[in-house]
Every structure is written in structure tokens, then in C-alpha cells.
Amino acid sequence: MANEDFNTWISGTFAFGRDGQADVKFRKLHRILVCGKATLCREVFGDTLNESRDPGGEGAERYTSRLYLKHQCFEKACDTLAEKGFKMIASCSSGANGLAPTPHPMLTAQMSNTQQDFMNQRNSGDLEEQRWAHYTEYVFYREPQILSN
Amino acid sequence: MANEDFNTWISGTFAFGRDGQADVKFRKLHRILVCGKATLCREVFGDTLNESRDPGGEGAERYTSRLYLKHQCFEKACDTLAEKGFKMIASCSSGANGLAPTPHPMLTAQMSNTQQDFMNQRNSGDLEEQRWAHYTEYVFYREPQILSN
Amino acid sequence: MANEDFNTWISGTFAFGRDGQADVKFRKLHRILVCGKATLCREVFGDTLNESRDPGGEGAERYTSRLYLKHQCFEKACDTLAEKGFKMIASCSSGANGLAPTPHPMLTAQMSNTQQDFMNQRNSGDLEEQRWAHYTEYVFYREPQILSN
Amino acid sequence: MANEDFNTWISGTFAFGRDGQADVKFRKLHRILVCGKATLCREVFGDTLNESRDPGGEGAERYTSRLYLKHQCFEKACDTLAEKGFKMIASCSSGANGLAPTPHPMLTAQMSNTQQDFMNQRNSGDLEEQRWAHYTEYVFYREPQILSN
Amino acid sequence: MANEDFNTWISGTFAFGRDGQADVKFRKLHRILVCGKATLCREVFGDTLNESRDPGGEGAERYTSRLYLKHQCFEKACDTLAEKGFKMIASCSSGANGLAPTPHPMLTAQMSNTQQDFMNQRNSGDLEEQRWAHYTEYVFYREPQILSN
């Protein structure tokens, strides 16, 4: 059994309200992506793994980045990894670049107020959330000796 | 007792004045979010935990991301976690994406000066603060052996 | 044999769909760049290394940042490095700054709707992907004593 | 003596010139903020601590985020912390969001050239610096046993 | 001999081509800044240090952030630091904020096509590079006992 690196991708949206605002927003994870050797991902996450988007096949040495968890709880995933002997060894995070594309972004200044109002209505809830959209990546690793016990 | 991962989310606003400016601004934390197994969060933070937004229920295995601390002092939270045997094992940070949405953002160029002045007055304090808005995430972890003692 | 630092650059595009959207997007790595002492890079990655852009020459002490892997699997690269005694010691990530340049960015507001429509068609798929474009850098290190065994 | 977490905030501006440009710019730190238990901050940094903005009072258990160093040398602060038994355990960084607010940002397109020229003159030096403005946060921690010796 | 913290600033530009594009771009470091106690920086980097921008003077306790390396190879700097007993203990990264200032940014929309074309020609190569501009900071540390041997 070789040592195995485990790269768990966390894609999350984090949003919180402004100072003094009643509605505190909490962490919202969209999806916990799991990347690594396919057989190892299955060994660790078992039934909690959604494999519907993974092409499958190709034996024990196949690596995949098309698996994700059925639940959206990051700490639960960490517990599962720790129970299997993995340690978190790295993390990094980055915000998205600007807001999601809207139709005709540069033309809004030329829209009528009615069109603009309609667009604002559709986007108003999204915009504050988009401002805080980001992804975070965690890397987990298991020492070889732990695996051979 | 299993090993437990503890994910404490820190949502903060950091702002400082320009070089040579009299009014130095300091760290302003909006809210310290706490995520993880609900029973563990309560064991660690006890009375300092605000549970008003947590749905509760579902037994010892329930994970939550709807708890936050009653105080806004990051170092105090770190001390509490260290006293309970947790170590900080990861941190990452990201700025927000652009500024908070203002009504009719692309239409301001067509406003009268009076409207514009009014809007600048409302936003002038916010903008410099928004530029530095960011969140930081810290992950804390406790080795299983410490818990079983 | 001296101790060797190993800097593996990961350039990736990360994109995911919105909440409740059917098409979940996964991690897409464009290219895994490998930087460090050229002889060491070859010792570690062997045939999986693309050397076509590396100028070569200049002996054992030459450092290069013009090598990349033939595959795009980050976890496979981590496994290879771990098998050779390297440990991941640092990681950091950052998003790209804004979107890719489009021709005449400031002039789009003056385009006809037809031109604008054409441009939106060409860019619509790209924009959501560009929002999530980022790079991540990992640093791997091998202790000198491991190498001399 | 309990174990103490120490959160030193570094607020810096980093700027460098373009490739081949004569004037290389260097790191410019605006202010090194120090956060943590007030008595501990004083024990560690002593006379190098500026306490003029700290409200004071409230005994040994008071935490503060209103202290900063009299000098702007990050490495000197690290040496001081290391001499007192602290270790750096985490760091994270994030850029500011966009540029600092200018008066009537959306109205500049409608200004006369004279007004615009004046504004460019005022802002030209600032803009390149603002592009690189960022903050970095470091967390330092001291194990309890070191303190009790 | 006291323990010494070593803060090496890495300022780099990272750029890569789009998926399926022939011209793969590689890491381009503009300049490796070195910050810390001046005597220690010289002890570690010796002749590879460019001291032309350092004011000098003031004895063994002087800290500086005005030194940089004559070469632009990050891994070579890491090897040098490791040979002298330093360990990398932290890293963080952040992108630049938006693109570099162009003259009259808000007025471009009012330029003639000829002026605009000229400007696009000058900027087209720069823009994709600017999108990926970022800096990365690494902190190196040497334990006191290693130094006294």
C-alpha cells in the first residue's frame, strides 16, 4: 500500500449581513468535491460519495476529480477523513472574480428604468451573496505506515 | 470518543487609514461563526455560544453551521479552544468581490448631481470599509487521545 | 547531496454551478507547472515531465520554471512526490484579477445591439468560468537525511 | 498561567514596479496591529507598543484589538515574539477590494478634461500603490508549558 | 545569538494560456525581495544579494526591507535558506486589485476609435498578464539552537 494524497475541494458560498442587521447569514456550502485516487475516495467516503458524474473504470490507479459528497457538511467530511488516518496538511482560499455575468452588462446604462428595475429585482438577492462567493481547497494526507497497520 | 474536527469561521472587516492619516482604524469582527458537531461546539464554548439561529434536535451526530459566539473576540475564542485541547491547523482568507450592491449601479452616471451627492454622503463611510471587507476561516482540530483522558 | 526545495505550481480553473443547478462543474486543471532544480525535477517526475519548453543545458545546478507535467492530475503528482520523500509544506491561492480582456472593453457600451449580441454569445460560456479562474501554488520539500539514505 | 493565543495583524501595502522599470518599490507596512489579551500584549511588546488608542481597564482577562506597534518592522516583531516563546502557526492574506473611493466615481466620465486631468494628477501615484494594497494576518501561539518554566 | 525570523517576499507574475492554446506561459518572477535583520540577510544570501537600494548603517540590530536577490529563482533562494538551517513556516498570496492604471480610465469610452485602437495595441499583451499578477509572501525561520552549533 503506497502513501496516498487526498485532495478534498470545498466549494462554498459565505455570506454575512452588515453590522447591526437582523438577518445574520451563515456559511452555505454548495458542494464538497472530492479528488484523488478513485479507489481511495471510495474506501474513505463509502456511501456518502456521489459517483453519478464519475466515468468509472480503469483500475486501482485511476485518479478522478468528478466525485462529490452527498452531504454538504465540511466538518463531517473532516471527521471521516480523520477516522481513516488522514491529516489536513494545507488549505487555501480565493474569492470569485467579480460578479456573475448578466446579459448585456455594458448596456445596462442605456436601458430604460423599467428594464433596469426588473433586472435589479432579479439580481438584488444574488448580488450580496455573490460578493462573498469563494472556494476553499483543503488537502488531506495519510502517512504510509498508518495504512499498512 | 472519536476525534473531532472543529471549524471556526471568522467573519471580519478589516480597515485601516491611509499613510499619515490621523484616524487609525482597527480590526472589526462582525461575527465569529462556529461550525462542527453541535454537541462538541456546546462542550467547548458553553454559555458564550449563541444558539438562537440553530434549529437544534437530531442527537449527538448532528453537525451545524448556524452557531456563533456572543462575543467578537477572536483571541478569546482561540484561548477557549486551546484550553479544551484543540490546535489551529489551517487558516485561509479571501476578500469580498467588489463592493456591496447599490440601487441602480449603472444608472448613477445618469443621475443629477443632487441625487449623486446624496448617495455619496450615504456611501462615503461605507466604501473605504467595504474595500477591506474580507472573511477568514480557521480550522481547529483535537487529537482523539487528548479527548479520552 | 544537498537538501532540495521543490516548488510545484498548480494552475487551475475551478468552476461550479449555482445552487440547485443541474450541471455541477468540477475542478479543471489547465496545467501543472513544476519549478526547481532541473535534475531533481527529472529524478522525481521522470517520463511524466514535459521538457519541450525547457531550454536545457548548464549542469546540475540549473534551476528551471519551464517544466510541466504531461498529466493534469494534482493528486497523482502529490503521490509521486510523497513516494520520493517530499512533504507538502506550503500552499497558497489567488484568484485572477477581473475577466480576460475583450477587444475594446470600454467601447462595448457604444456598440450596436447586433455586435453586442454576437459578443455575448461568444463570451457567455467563458464568463462564469473566468469568474472562478485562479491559480494555486504548492511547495514541497525533502529533508536532506532522507535523500542520503 | 494559561496558554495564550496571540493574533498579530499586519496591515501592509506591497508595491513593485514593472519588469525593466528602474524604480523598484519595496514593502511598505502601514501599521502592525496587535490583538490578544491586553496584559499578554504588554508583557511581550513592552515599550514598543502604542497604547494610545486602547481604552484600557477591566483586569487581566481583557482582550483588545486596539494596540499597535511603534515600529513598522514585521521581522522585528517576529523576533520579539520568538524570544518570548511564541510560534507563528498561521498566516493568511487578502487584497483590498477595488480601489479607494474617489468623489463621484461614476461621474468622472462626464467631467471636462481639465477636471479629469487634475484628478489624474492627484491619483496617478496612488493608483499603482492601491492595486497592490493588501493586508496579511499572522497568528502566534505559545504553548502553556513554556510559560510556566 | 538570538533566534531570527526571516521574511522573504516573493513578487511574481503568473500567467498561463487558455485551454488548448499553443503558447503555454510560465511563472515569471519580477523580483525576490528579502526582509529581515540586515546582518542576517547578508550572512544567508551573501553575494547574491543586491544591496544598492538599502540605506545601510546602524549596526547589527538594524532591520531592512530594501534588499532583493540578484537572481529571480525562488527555489534557489529556498535551497540557500535550507542550507543555512531555515525552515519555511508560512506562506500567503494575494492577487493585485484590478488592472494597472491607464491614463484617463473613465474617458476611454469617449475616445475616438483611432485612439482606442492605439491603446488596445499597447495594452493587449499586458492585460492577460495583469490579470494574473499577484504577490506571494513566504516566511522562513531558524531555531536558535541550530544557530549556536
TrEMBL record, chains A, B, C, D, E:
Record-annotated membrane-spanning stretches: none
Q: Where is the KCTD8/12/16 H1 domain?
A: 11-142
Compartment(s) where it occurs, according to its Swiss-Prot or TrEMBL record: Cell membrane; Cell projection, Neuron projection
Annotated keywords:
Cell membrane, Cell projection, Membrane, Phosphoprotein
One GO cellular component term noted in the UniProt record for this chain: plasma membrane
CDD domains cross-referenced by the UniProt entry: H1_KCTD12-like
Q: Which portions of this protein are annotated as coiled-coil regions?
A: none
**Can you tell which superkingdom this protein's organism belongs to?**
Eukaryota
Has UniProt tagged this entry with the keyword Cell membrane? Answer: yes
The answer to whether the entry has keyword Ribonucleoprotein is no
**Main subcellular location:** membrane
Name the chain's protein. KCTD8/12/16 H1 domain-containing protein
